Amino acid sequence: MSTTSPPSSPLHTTHLLRRATINRLFAIIYALCIITLIHRHITNIHHSTTVIFLIADLVLAFMWTTTTSFRLYPTRRKVFPEKLDKFLEKKDYPAVDIFICTADPYKEPPMNVVNTALSLMAYDYPPEKISVFVSDDGGSELTLFAFFEAAKFAKIWLPFCRENNVVDRCPEVFFRSCHAAFSDGANIKAMYEKMKMKVESVVDRGSICAEYITTDEERKAFDKWDKGFTRHHHPTVIQVLIESEQEKDMNGHSMPNLIYVSREKNKAYPHNFKAGALNTLLRVSAVMTNAPIVLTQDCDMYSNDPKTLQRMLCFYADQSIRHNLGYIQFPQRFQGINKADIYGSEYKRLYVINPGGMDGLKGPCYVGSGCFFVRRVFFGGPSSPELPEAHRLWPDHVVKVSIRNNQVLDLAHEVAVSNYEENSTWGSKMGFRYGSLSEDFFTGLHQHCRGWKSIFFHPRRPAFLGDLPITLYDALNQNRRWCIGLLEVVFSKYNPLTFGSLFMGPLMGLAYAHNAFWPIWSIPIITYSFVPQLALLNGTQVFPEVTNSWFILYAFLFMGANVQDCFDFMSARGTFQQWWNDQRIWFMRGLSSYLFGFIEFSIKHLGIASKGFHVTSKVVDDEQSKRYNNGVFEFGVPSPMFVPLATVAIVNFVAFVVGILQILNGGNINGLFGQMFISCFGVLNSWPIYEAMLWRTDKGRMPRVISVISALLSLVLCMLALFVPNA
Ligand SMILES: O=c1ccn([C@@H]2O[C@H](COP(=O)(O)OP(=O)(O)O[C@H]3O[C@H](CO)[C@@H](O)[C@H](O)[C@H]3O)[C@@H](O)[C@H]2O)c(=O)[nH]1
Ligand SMILES: [Mn+2]
Question: What is a single cellular component term in the Gene Ontology annotation (predicted)?
């Protein structure tokens, strides 16, 4: 592994953060301490609890090793888009195909999807070079209707943004805040509101009233939704809403292409969820525009910065890194996070800190949204292309005809049929990877293994902002789905540790393994949430006495990990409170989503049942959102995932109280200190759970049934601990 920075380019620079040296030194010390601890466990293996702690600590040690791979080469990049003119004339800017995925009009309101699309169409970039493809896996006429309306509004919105140099180009965001300062702002807002009302009324009704369908084109399009049309079984719908060459905005400027695509669905063929949708878009766009750059975007991730494409070009235009540059990933950032980020929804480590660490190696993972791919990356390695059979799908094929041309449209329909991929290498060698619910992680891994590199770029003003789950249930469910997807990668041929290390080098292998092995966090988390506490009830000492010199080792390992973690977190512009909540949600995930993800993965692979891709809801209930904004945990639904959380809360409380009583009665405070400390930590972390179980009365409180089950479970556990003979 070389430490020299890549040749500098006038368009962008890279530098290794100074903390790299400290991190490396600290890693050596910490590693020695871990080895000492494991050695101690092995020599004490005859104690009954030691085996459990040995396993837990081995997992912690493994996860620490994987985390260290992010800390050895932490990197930060800068770009200089103002110099772009010297290297690239506007007319030579590459074309960009933007893919927006949506899957359910009731969980992903069409008005939000429209906002995302409008913000992206309004990039400060030659409009004729932008094509926006909307993939609708919900197969919903409501979404198509919203886009017919959006196409009309775009003719007013895009010139307005351009002429006034608007920064917030997502209409909803713009009109929520600063429109009053612009001449005509009020007028345009009125038009926007009218469109919004129209679309929302259609969504509320669930159908489009006849008077809203005004042109033959629209009528013809909606006729496809006949009686036999369901979201799981329907023909392909491809609707060109704006054709760049034909349509002009109200000031006579060109517009980007806007195309609605709902691929054919047929229950006889697997559709492979989002990866399947993206592969269809890869083909449809190849036939229609075939831009060399592809941006994938979730429907809730709007563009927050009109200059993002220029920033991306600073890398793309650099010939010296071009030959194996696969993609440029911008971090996923979110709007509307509450100040304390109670559910750790920001995923600062996943989206910001770790990618910065991988950027010093071969580049960050792909995270599903905000990623600019070089189209070639989907077809083989940098110097070993594997091209699709049809020449018209090749990444270098130049499309010369109009996107409304009948032949083009016929072909586009042909490549969107449900059995197109039968007996092909789509999803296994070409395009986005199938076989994991975390298709993004799997796809990026595969590309890195083939020799592609990637770049992480984190601008100060977020390039994209998305929605996040605002209930604990949604947040844990999302995490659980990821875990299933990650385990699918671990148990595939592409295990990051074995296959990955071989093809990407050991540090990249470890970095990928860090995410892939997320679910095994459950083992130490469950151990440390129950065993020291139950041992305390039992009067068994499991950690060294405070006065014993071994205690220092424990204290150092605990504090060292937490302080370094907190430092990483706060240097990525987090607050202490956010860090605290982040470590708490990590515990909660270990007890619920990581564990349940693992269980569901196992069940799925025994062939019993599978829920598939459960789309995260982006709809908010007013009361819930009020509670979220006040930083109050939302339980509400009786989910089995809450049982371990509540059980841990009760057990830690009981252990803490009993511990205090023991000490008051002259117990051995020296010996029990470690266990008291951990129980106290557990109690502090469980505070929102006590609130939700005991004195909250709102709808977000812990459902009675969960409290009762957990209390019974805790009772059984505590009884066992109290009455099993002292070990
Ligand atoms: O069958 C499907 C299912 C989902 N989607 C789309 O996939 C996107 C992501 O789904 P969402 O429910 O929002 O998942 P999140 O957990 O919020 O998304 C994260 O995790 C996913 C992988 O699990 C990645 O694909 C995403 O980019 C990443 O943001 C959305 O735009 C959906 O419309 C489809 O197009 N087809
Ligand atoms: Mn999402």
Answer: endomembrane system
